[in-house]
Amino acid sequence: MADTAISSPAAGRGAAPGLRREPQSGLDHPSGDNRFKMLDASMKRHRFAQEALIEVLHAAQELFGYLTADILYYIAHHLRLPPSRVYGVATFYHFFTFSPKGEHSCVVCTGTACYVKGADRILAAIEGALGTVAGKTTADGRVSLSTARCLGACGLAPVVVYDGEVVGNQAPEPALERLKGWGGDGPR
Hints:
Radius of gyration: 22 Å
Order of helices and strands: EEHHHHEHHEEEEH
Number of domains: 2
Number of helices: 7
Distance between the termini: 66 Å
CATH class of the largest domain: Alpha Beta
CATH topology of the largest domain: Glutaredoxin
CATH architecture of the largest domain: 3-Layer(aba) Sandwich
Strand content: 5-15%
Largest sheet: 5 strands, mixed
Oligomer: single chain
Structural class: alpha/beta
């Protein structure tokens, strides 16, 4: 009689005779995507605790780049949470994204100090030049534009973050000049 492969967590821990644990091939998820195995390891590290939802969402976004409905359902199933709760937490926190990020990122601070000193004009100029709006990525996938409530650099207001580099005392013209380097030849 041939061995029957099972994937039960109980397999290998006193399982019935004739049953063996399914081999770890690295392709355990039906899609064959190894990132799900790494996500499983993250959930296991947190003992599949529902309280670890935010940490698991962070791990998923780090692995996949952004969160999709399938990933949210996968997490909900494994943490034994209603999908609505997982979706609610993911949409509540500004850090989580639901679409692919661009090759470059541009974050305009819209906190009080930055706004008073012209962040709205900077944002409008950048949106016009890129042909997209805050919270979206350009059609060619080159630049993701977003806003932040406050970056904590109020003394440098208005502030724009270009690919992680905080640049203060910005105005529409220097911001647009900075973005010109993000064409086919990459950032300056």
